[in-house]
Design brief:
Blueprint: E1 2-6, E2 9-13, H1 17-30, E3 32-39, E4 44-51, E5 53-56, E6 61-65, H2 69-76, H3 98-114
Antiparallel strand pairs: 1-2, 2-6, 3-4, 5-6
């Protein structure tokens, strides 16, 4: 079994038809959900299944969204490969404070795991001509 990230999608190629059928059952149970809607004019409910996976039986491939990687990884027992490798010299970031360095390491770890990361940080507006060390 092999897998590859392609943009926002995760493609998994399975080795046999049995694995492919097992993957479809997994997708139905863990990669889809049901939306139930009430129709007031008819006084009934409808249910619609929303699938967040696609099966390709010709190539024994399953495709899902990249954000569902943790579920897929656990179910298939896949070993995580780095999505991207980020290399930098720690001497280049020695000016960072401890909490900033900690945030940087967390972001890099998440980027290696799933290929994306978000950081929200305040800009900290200072009065003109003042340095943050003087406050």
């Amino acid at each position: 079994m092999r897998y590859m990230f392609r943009g926002n999608y995760l493609d998994i190629w399975l080795d046999s038809e049995e694995q492919y059928r097992r993957a479809l059952y997994f997708g139905e149970a863990h990669l889809s959900y049901t939306v139930r809607r009430y129709l007031p004019r008819e006084n009934t409910f409808t249910e619609e299944v929303v699938r967040r996976y696609w099966g390709y039986p010709d190539s024994l491939k399953l495709r899902t969204f990249r954000g569902l990687w943790p579920r897929v990884k656990r179910f298939f027992g896949l070993e995580p490969r780095p999505y991207c490798e980020v290399d930098f010299d720690e001497r280049e970031v020695r000016f960072l404070r401890d909490y900033q360095l900690d945030a940087l390491y967390h972001i890099l770890a998440q980027m290696e795991e799933c290929g994306c990361a978000s950081l929200q940080a305040a800009t900290g507006n200072l009065p003109r001509g003042e340095d943050c060390r003087s406050i």
